[in-house]
Amino acid sequence: MRRASRDAEAPARGTASRAVDAGAARRVRALYRRLLQRYGPQGWWPADDRFEMMVGAVLVQNTAWRNAQHAVAGLRDAGLLQWRRLAQAREDRIADAIRAAGTYRVKARRVAALARHVAAHGGPQALAALPTPALRAGLLRVHGVGAETADAILVYAYARPSFVLDAYTRRVCARLGFAPTAAPHADAALRELLEGALPRDAALYGEFHALIVAHARVSCRARPRCAGCALHAHCTFAAGEC
Ligand code: SF4
User: Fold this and answer.
1) Residue 61: CB within 6 Å of ligand 1?
2) pLDDT in tens, 106-129
3) Labelling 66: which of 20, 52, 98, 135 has CA 20 to 30 A away?
4) Residues 224 and 187 in one domain
5) In-domain check, residue 13
6) Please, are residues 10 and 201 in contact by the beta-carbon 8 Å criterion?
């Protein structure tokens, strides 16, 4: 499920970008280029197939990726990394397999619900026949799947252009001046800006989100490491601190 990086200046494929302030749109595209130059292609999502990606998106909630990877491996070792089997498995057996992910009883219920959702539609490939709004709405009805997880699944498993807005994205974008706050209530405006500034290309959205996560982990942490940050000269937060 690894993808090539995309050129943010490439023309939109099929669907025009939404109208946003031209200056802000240029700054968004410049941000993508700078992050790509700094961190290189991230190639998300590391998974062997669509269903593994979907399960990983639930297991990584509120934990580090390495823990989610161990939990995915636990499911594989238990013979449960397959949607039919997972949909029929007992939750205590799933929980035993995913202990590495933390809150494993909660997550067992969530991945079981996701597997049942997939099974009810005839499998992950069959779900691909749904238009994006229906696919997203269905995912949001699954126990434990919120907007962030649903959008990650849309982008990385189904190649649908729906920008992933997580805490990292909110924090980095707020500090750079793209959003007035890092609070979720600003999500709609931030989505409008990001999606309006970019070609409607899921691979581009996926790479951009992965780059933002890389930046939030390396430099733009909760306590930011602004000295030496590649974005320092363009950052509202850093300007205020100086
Ligand atoms: S200069 Fe500081 S606040 Fe701004 S993006 Fe870099 S690390 Fe984040």
Assistant:
1) no
2) 999 999 999 999 999 999 999 999
3) 135
4) yes
5) no
6) yes
| Ligand 1 pocket residue status of 161, Cβ below 6 Å | no
Return the CATH number at 215.
Answer: 1.10.1670.10
- Tell which one of 175, 178, 212, 215 to mutate to probe ligand 1, the residue whose CB is within 8 A of the most ligand atoms: 175
The whole-number pLDDT of residue 19 equals 78
Round the CA-based radius of gyration of the chain to a whole number and report it.
Answer: 18
Nearest protein CA to atom 4 of ligand 1, as residue: 235
The parts of the chain modelled with pLDDT lower than 70 are 2-5, 9-18, 242
What is the identity of the amino acid at 211?
L
Check pocket membership of 42 for ligand 1, CB cut-off 6 A: no
pTM for this prediction: 0.92
Flag whether 183 is in a domain. Answer: yes
